[in-house]
Each structure stands twice: as C-alpha cells, then as structure tokens.
Amino acid sequence: MPSNPLAPSWLMQPDDANALPAHVWSQNARRAASGELEIAGVSASALVQQFGTPVYVVDEADVTARARGIREAFEREFARVGSSAKVYYAGKAFLSTEVARWVIGAGLNIDVASGGELAVALAAGVDPARLGLHGNNKSVGEIERAVSVGVGAIVVDSAIEVERVADAAAKFGRVQPVRLRINSGVHASTHEYLATAREDQKFGIPLADAAQIVDRIRWQPSLSFLGLHSHIGSQIFESEGFIEASRRLFALHAELSEVAAVPELNLGGGFGIAYTSVDHPVQIDTIAARFADTIAAAAAEYGVALPVVAIEPGRSIIGPSTTTLYTIGTIKDVHVTGGNELIELQSDGTVTVDESNLYESVRKYVSVDGGMSDNIRPALYGADYSVRLANRVSDARPALVRIAGKHCESGDILVHADYLPGDVRPGDLAAIPATGAYGWAMASNYNYLARPPVVAVLDGVARVIVRGETEDDLLSRDVGVSS
User: Could you give the CA distance from residue 416 to residue 407 in angstroms, rounded to a whole number?
Assistant: First the structure.
C-alpha cells in the first residue's frame, strides 16, 4: 500500500499499524490477548497506573541477555583465533547502580566518562579494576579520584593528559594502566555529531603523533601502557569502517610492539541498533567474527603476538531494552499541500501548466506528556523512532502521525513520522521503543518538567530503579523558595 506523500521515502504504510517488529522492540515485548502491550509480563496500563507517564520501562532480561550474548560472541571468536576479548558497557548511554550490577554480573566491564558516572559505578559496588575512564577533558580531580580508587584503565585523550595522569599516580603511589586514544581518520557512516574519528574534532591523538606520545607514557615510571584505543563513532550499521580502523590501529600496534610488549588493543565499538522497521544492523556474531579474522590476519602479517582485544559495543546493550510510555493529549489534523507545478513553454508560444504532481494530504500531530526533555535525540540529531498504541489495538485505517512533545519548541518532536490507527484519541497510551540509550542519560528539566522514573520489569514484576523527580525536587534547588 503506498505511503502518505508526506511520509519519508523509507516509510511505507503498514498493513497492520498494531504490529511490533521484533527487531525494534525488546525481547519480552508483545501484544496480550486483550491487545495491550505487555513488557516482561506487565501490561502498559498497569505500569501507567502505578508509575504515571512518561515512564521509561527497562526489560531487565533483555539487557542481561544482550550483554551476555555480546560477551560470549567476542570471547568465542577471539578464542577461535588464539586470543581473548573483554567487553566494556558504555555507562554514558545509561547508568544506574542496578544496570551496573546487571552488566557486571553478565561478565562485562564498564566505561565511565565523568566523575559522576564513576561515582555511580562505585556506589553499585563495582570493582574499580573493571572500570575504564574516558573523556577528552578530564579534570585533575576526576583523574586523581580514578587513580586513588584503582580504576583498571584510563584512556589518555591528549598529550597534556600524560603528565596529569602520571602526576596523580605518583601522588598516590600507584602505577596506573593507561590506553592512548587514536584518531584513525576513518569516516564512519553516521550522523556528523556521532562520528568521533574524523580529523577535525576534539577526540584522540592523530596516528602520526601516536608513537611519540607512547614514548612519553613509557618514560613515566608511574604509568603502564596497556595499548591503543580507537572509537570511530556511534549508531554505525556497516562494518567496513570498524575493519579499516582496526587495520590502521594494528599497524601502529605492531610498530609499538617492536619496542616493548603491548598487551591489549581496544577497538572501540558504536554498533547500531534498530529504531525503525527498516533498520537492519549487522548481527553481533558477524561483527565479532570479522573483528577476530581481521586482527588474526594482521598479527600474522606483521609477525606479532595477538593482543587481548577490548570492545565497547555502546548502545547495542541498553538501547533496545527500553520502551517509553506516554499519555496522548492534544491531536490535530494538519492539512499540507505540496509538490511542484510543471510549467512548460510550447513551441507555439503558449504555456502549459501540469498540476498532476501537486497533492494535498494530512499529517496527524499527536502530542504527548513528555518530549525533548526525556528524549532529545530527535531534536538534536534528527533521529528516527517508531511508535505504537500501548493500551489497545485497532482495525482503523493507518494514519500518518508525528509524535510531538509538550515543550515550547517547534522542534520538540519524538517521532518524525510513523503510522498509528486513525482512531487514535486523547487518553490513549503511546509506546516508543528503543529508548534505552541516551534518553534518560540526556534528559533535562526544560520547561521545569520533572525527569521521569526508570522502571525495570522482570517476570511480571515491576520495580523502580531510578526514582522520578517531583516538583518538590525541582524547587529544592531554588534558594529563593521559602523553607
């Protein structure tokens, strides 16, 4: 069936606007016999009755299964070629003490990128040796705290950080393991803001300067050089960029290995996930196999021992696990005209006008009780998401919708384009899947909206893992409020 002419070219009108594409939703999301959305055995209406809306709903079993599956895939493939692998969970995507315990329990390590993220991981009881500290502008205080507690690795992002980390390690009488982040120059196929290895940006050391910086690290008695680190971006669907970055990084790794042993090689990550039905990321098993084959071939070519390989799969663990529920409020049918008139001058001097390419269509604006304060990605990146009714199914004809937030911004859009049953009405519940990464983590109090709770669901039981804010919480920071 053809799409509404206002729809993007990739979005086709579905036969069933109630269907939940399995690769977009968490593993335990399904329609109950009643038509309601259930996640891990808990219905959407029950969640909303208990916790209100908006609410982030995390499928706990989905998180742990993905974490374990990625670790096992990389361990298996690198064992096949005679090496080993370690996997780091990206704390910046979403971190709470419960999630930290889940991923550690699944055998992963954790990346943190600030003093706050480090504090959360430590509060969860994570062994500091299983933490890595990232960041292009770590403060001296952040570095000293990481060194003092025994963080397993600090990723050095600039020449100036060599001395900063060395001084901190000497101050606390430690030898601090470090990695050096390399800007490989590989241009990842992703949004400009998510590409982190292009030449003109803030992260890492250029390949040409890396050997000199490694010499400075090795000269410091309070530092131990673990190896190189690369990260080419986030939400990447193709694997060629990863493979090319791996080849470039390994060439430098081999050169450095001629001077002294380099035990590890961190190949980064940023593997994409499905936000819409047309997104089809490369399977983790395929990525793991390609990484292992590439590193094994490079080691053989350069005649050096295989290092331990570290991987940072990013949003691919937490992203698909979470669905955000909203209550629908205002609905507006907006009539839009478009297309182009074709005006031609004929040989006899007459002018013809062809209006067959013009159209008039309707986009249904569906507003919900959240918005860019709980998911900034559509406004910031133009990111696409999907939406479905959560409280019921309907056989009404699908209608093109745009899910808008309640903020005072025309760019406050959560779903740019999808189809819902045409009888969508105020009071319905809307569910947006794949909101686990960079939703809560980038949330704000714009327009003084309180940030929503995060609720974990497992085996029919729901529990809060991050308490939602209240207006009292917001006012508590305003020193002008009378006590």
Answer: 15
